[in-house]
Amino acid sequence: MTATKTNKPKFAVLGAGHGGLAMAGHLALMGFEVKLYNRSEERLWGVKSMRGITLEGEIEGFAKIDVASTNMKEVIEDAEIIMVVVPATAHEFIAEQCAPYLRDGQIVILNPGRTLGALEFKQVVKKMGNTSDVIIAEAQTFIYASRVNGPAQAHIYRIKNSIPVASIRAYLIPKVLGRLRIAYPQFVAGDNIFKTSFDNIGAVFHPAICVLNSGWIEDDAEFQFYLEGVTESVARVLEKVDLERIRVAESLGIRAMSAKEWLYLAYGAQGNDLRESMRANPGYRGIMAPNRLSIRYISEDVPSSLVPMASIGNKFGIPTPTINSIIEIASTINNTDYWSIGRTVEKLQIAEMSLRELRLLAIGEKL
To answer: What does pTM read for this prediction?
Structure first.
């Protein structure tokens, strides 16, 4: 579809980190009206002083950003599509900040939702007293592989080929895509929020690679995270985490794709096994390992991805010993009880729901 002045949606991008700067800049370069929010001024001063964002890599150019603000109302009040691009551990905070200003007809998309992010977001908005007819959706993964490399500058290593998106009330997915694909033809229909949640491949890659390379990371060694950080033995652990994720999804009646299948779908990368497929992915080349363990690959992906997967597995009697061990070791490494702060079935208010009730929730029931 060709965007015209009359059919172009207005976007709000919430978050000015690695992903938010890339998304805001790219949308603006494509000719969309974009407003950028961040809760602290520190991340915005560069964008404000430069009056825009410089992109390098797969997308290059200077994108003018008219509004970059810490004022949530100013950013989202006239936006049709609100793209939430913050760590999943901040979804609750963003939902609280958005709730007073959300209105009928707006679409909120978590990029990504990790595991059951849309459900958590919707419940927070409801708890805050907002009953507007807002569509809450989540992407299965983030569309960009990107990094901030300056105060108002981001490098886009790769734009993924195909990203499923699903909304609470799955019958509204076509409505979401009808507007979203004007900007992003890469987004496709996901089956429902449980499918997008369990096709969360970051849960497979991020925590385990960090935990199993913790010595090198703390020693500030330079190595390519997804390539040199995944040896044959590390890959075997990733495959076990992947298998447990798939089995928990099956308990919900969901056929989750394998990490190997996802690499082919998202990047066109393929190989005889998971490690070969990862090494064949050009989007991973040049992405260096972090230099500390107090990062979102653990602090976000463990409580917002692995914990809900293990919690649902426990609810339906599906063992997750490898996932549990990664959670335990990560908790020890960062001296944080990720079980207690994570998205458990109790916190998500689905502990007492039957399988039938959960499936109804995903396809059409209002919360």
So the answer is: 0.86
